[in-house]
Structures are given as structure tokens and as C-alpha cells.
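User: I'll paste a sequence; please echo it back and then give the predicted structure.

Assistant: Echoing your sequence first, then the prediction.
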Amino acid sequence: MITAELFASLDLVVEAPETWHFPWVGEEMLAEVQREQGEATALLLGRRTYEVFADSWPNRSDDVPLARQLNAMPKVVVSSTLDSPTWRNTEVTRFDELAALKATGEGRITVAGSIRLVESLIAHGLLDELRLLTHPVVLGEGRRLFDTYDGPRADLELVESRTLERGVQLSVHRPSARH
């Protein structure tokens, strides 16, 4: 199973949440993100997100529960340009190898960030769940989810929706057979 969790603004900006989302981070959101990462057997990242994460998380103390989880878990980076990952427990793969990775059925693979990767997973029918944490802010600029989507129509079904503290809306979507 491959799931993706993205932070989004009301205008669906998903780019660089580390620059805008912290005022809305509360205990419920932290618990939700930690739970999602804790249930994962591997973290799947695009190259750009990997570079941001690899510059940050390995430098954080294991006293930070999410840092402890992310640093310890296996990580898979989808890239045709990254040769030597520096973050421990990281391997590099190509996009066309993801179907085989998913087919092994070995646990839950979670995608964090990685906008292009998420869009490609949806376009190729490889994403099993899209989790959006929508923050109550309109940013007006930045890369929006599906700005460059060029895949076929993908119908999604809302399977969960709830409001977390500070007005963040969690919505969980799964592929739907309806057209």
C-alpha cells in the first residue's frame, strides 16, 4: 500500500510547507503525522524532498519522536540523478520500479511531500490513499497540487474528514471505481 500525506493551504499550495505551516501545528497534527509515519514500513520521497529532509532530520535529536522515526526507518528515493544518498537507511530507485516495490505487499509505504511524485503515482494508479492536511490560510503563490498533472482522470472517494485543532482539516481520499 502506498499512501501520501501533504500539507496544503486553502488554495492548495503544497510547496515548501516548512516555510508557512508551523503556526497551525498542534498536538493533534503532530500525533497524526507521527501515527502515519509510525505505521509506515518505508518512507518514499522524490529527490527534491529527500534533499530538504536529508539536510534537516538527521541533525535533529532522537528526543524528537518524529526525528527518531524518520531517521531509523527505511527510505526510498525516486530519482534518476541521485547517486549516493547520505541519509542512513536510504536507497535510490527509478519510478518504473515502484509498481514492483508496491507489489511485494510488504507493509505501508508513505510518501511525504514530493508533489511531482504524488501526481505521478496518481496518474499511474499506484497511490492507494491521499491524506491532505489543509491549513486555514490562502498563500496566493507557490506550487499547487495538480498544477502540472497530466495523467488520466482519477476519481477519488472521501473516506475520512475531520477538523483538527487550530482549524486544520484532515481529509483522506482513496481511488474510486466510479467515473
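The chain has a mean pLDDT of 90. Residues 27-39 form the longest helix (13 residues).
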